């Protein structure tokens, strides 16, 4: 089959044949270069898609972490309020204990005084 392709070149001058050969070589070279560039383009497109996916994954992870952080902040606020309430309740109970302790001491003194009076 290549002989049929080459048939049209018969009878051409050596100078023209040389130029045709140079042009064919240049075409082959350009085809190879185009294939290489196409491969590079496809590789770069694949890398770009991979980076886009990575960015998307990182955005999703950041959003998840932001929600988790918000939830933890709300939990901390809730725990802080509970701590303050418990602390207040403890202060109230300590105050009540102190009052009752004072009343107990007063009652003990009254009992001792009454016992002393009875002994007399």
Automatic annotation (TrEMBL):
One of its GO terms (molecular function) is microtubule binding. Pfam families: CENP-F_N (PF10481). Residues 1-120 form the Centromere protein Cenp-F N-terminal domain. GO terms for cellular component: chromosome, centromeric region; nucleus; spindle pole. InterPro entries: Cenp-F (IPR043513), Centromere_CenpF_N (IPR018463). Residues 97-120 are annotated as: Disordered. GO terms for biological process: metaphase chromosome alignment; mitotic cell cycle; regulation of G2/M transition of mitotic cell cycle. Residues 97-106 have a biased composition (Polar residues). Residues 107-120 have a biased composition (Basic and acidic residues). PANTHER family: CENTROMERE PROTEIN F (PTHR18874:SF10), CMF/LEK/CENP CELL DIVISION-RELATED (PTHR18874). This is Centromere protein F. It comes from Nipponia nippon (Crested ibis).
């Amino acid at each position: 089959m290549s002989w049929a392709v080459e048939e049209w070149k018969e009878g051409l001058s050596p100078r023209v044949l040389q130029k045709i050969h140079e042009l064919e070589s240049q075409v082959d070279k350009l085809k190879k270069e185009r294939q290489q560039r196409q491969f590079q383009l496809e590789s770069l497109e694949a890398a770009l898609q991979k980076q886009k996916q990575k960015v998307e994954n990182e955005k999703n992870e950041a959003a998840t972490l932001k929600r988790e952080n918000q939830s933890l902040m709300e939990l901390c606020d809730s725990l802080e309020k509970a701590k303050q309430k418990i602390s207040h309740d403890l202060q109230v109970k300590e105050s009540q204990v102190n009052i009752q302790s004072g009343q107990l001491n007063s009652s003990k003194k009254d009992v001792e005084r009454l016992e002393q009076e009875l002994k007399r």
